[in-house]
Design brief:
heterodimer; A: 16-stranded antiparallel barrel; 8% helix; globular; B: 76 residues; mainly alpha; 50% helix
């Protein structure tokens, strides 16, 4: 009875809060603006752990009548992989290509911003389509900005070489954001995002391993396709801050806490320093560290095979206990003015070096070791982003 | 008590929100030149940051709340 009353009270509170929020959205004087008009052509490259992925990304944004903005993005991943997951499964190096198209429009109405967009991703064994909607509003004399967004994705999962295999997965994202100017030099941002998945959530090419003989690991192991839950719900909350230093430079910090109902808990910390040199050069230094605790149903080596579809088994390194560190350097240069139609143009190079070290995901290539005693896997990756941008 | 809460809590919530309307901005618009500087942006180059998010999302168990550059992608 008390619980029911409390639930009713909560519903009423939420209704009042939403009513209050709408009141602000319609009556508070704000100064939101459309996204800046710019175009970027980017080349990206990821290389590490036996994987090479590169390709272009092109982003174009154009505003019309000071009230509407269109954005289009074309993105390609060209993959060549002989990763530890590929070699462990006994497969040979493969190549594939993924293309992604995104379109969105943002509408400025009565000083609030509303965006609507779609993203479509295609590769030979995976198709994904997502629609998203967001609202954005400045409040309290423009010192605060709140945002809400919702996205829904529907995926079709296939398997190369197995035409009879076709599964589906769907996903919903809800996110809330608040950014707040605290002083003339300090701004903070808070973001919360909840994501729920339903359907076929594992990678059909990945396997777990279990002992041939539970009583004697010397008898070796065998591989079988992973067994995942059909649902997943995750929550992430992040706080970030940017501080304008006494000279013209910025220091930014970020922390994110992540948890989900698979048992994964993760912490992300990032620190970034941005320093301009005269008006043309801009340099960023970044350090990021990430650590996570494994999913409940992850193991590097299971004693028994899965008994049924609810007896979950995973050996995805992304679900293991591991950490990584990133150091990043980026340099951006503003090019001399070359056209009256272009306000500004820049050329930028970003380089990230990421080192991954796993606590309980072993390298099965270490065949001299006893089963279960293989060395822990680790690898490093270089990530390059090289892009040209114009503002008009 | 719960019934009283039903009336009191929402009233307080609305009053709080309404009072916030009259908050004087403690950083005036003419004092925000630092905030307007692109070096203070959390998402200065969206095309690069969305790619960075994609790199991490593909290799880590965590996802979401990246802030900016997101909006959902078919990149499971």
């Amino acid at each position: 009875m008390v619980l029911k009353a409390a639930a009713e009270a909560a519903v009423v509170v939420i209704k009042y809060l939403l009513a209050g929020l709408l009141l602000f959205i319609t009556h508070v004087s704000v100064a939101v603006v459309l996204p800046e008009e710019r175009s970027d052509v980017l080349y990206h490259s990821y290389e590490g752990g036996g994987v090479k992925i590169d390709g272009p990304s092109v982003l174009v944004r154009k505003n019309f009548a000071d009230t509407i903005s269109f954005s289009a993005n074309y993105y390609v991943d060209s993959v060549s992989s002989a990763s530890i997951d590929v070699t462990t499964s006994g497969a040979s190096e493969y190549t594939e290509e993924r293309k992604e198209y995104s379109f969105s429009t943002t509408y400025l109405h009565d000083k609030s911003l509303m965006s609507l967009g779609v993203t479509s991703s295609r590769e030979n064994d995976y198709e994904g389509d997502t629609v998203f909607f967001s609202v954005n509003q400045d409040m309290f004399g423009d010192l605060s900005n709140i945002s809400f967004s919702y996205a829904r994705g529907n995926d079709t999962v296939g398997q190369t070489g197995n035409d009879s295999f076709e599964e589906t997965a769907s996903r919903q994202n809800y996110s809330l954001g608040l950014s707040q100017i605290l002083t003339k030099k300090l701004i903070i941002g808070l973001n919360y995002e909840s994501i729920s998945d339903k359907g076929f959530l594992n990678n059909p090419y990945r396997n777990y391993r279990f002992l041939n003989n539970p009583l004697n690991s010397a008898d070796g192991y065998q591989l079988a396709q992973e067994v995942y839950p059909e649902t997943r719900t995750s929550d992430a909350i992040a706080i970030r801050a940017a501080y304008y230093l006494p000279y013209r430079a910025a220091l930014k910090g970020e922390y994110r806490y992540f948890t989900d109902d698979w048992g994964i808990i993760a912490h992300t910390y990032e620190l970034k320093y941005t320093h301009p040199f005269n008006d043309a050069w801009l340099v960023d230094l970044k350090f990021r560290t990430y650590e996570q605790q494994q999913a409940d149903f992850y193991s590097d080596l299971f004693t028994f095979a899965s008994q049924d579809s609810k007896d979950f088994r995973a050996r995805d390194k992304e679900l293991s206990t591991f950490e990584n560190q990133t150091i990043g350097l980026s340099i951006s240069y503003q090019l001399p003015h070359f056209s009256h139609r272009v306000e500004q143009s820049r050329i930028s190079l970003e380089w990230d070096y990421i080192n991954f070290s796993y606590d309980n995901f072993t390298d099965l290539g270490d065949i001299t070791a006893a089963v279960g005693e293989e060395r822990q896997y680790e690898f490093s990756a270089n990530v390059i982003k090289f892009f040209f941008s114009i503002w008009y | 008590m719960p019934k009283a809460l039903c009336k009191i809590v929402p009233t307080i919530a609305v009053l709080l929100l309404a009072s916030a309307c009259s908050i004087e901005p403690w950083v005036q618009p003419y004092e925000r030149q630092n905030m307007a500087d692109p070096i203070m942006s959390f998402d200065r180059d969206p095309v690069a940051s969305s790619y960075t998010h994609h790199v991490y999302q593909s290799r880590e168990g965590a996802r979401g709340a990246e802030g900016g550059g997101g909006g959902g992608c078919g990149c499971n």
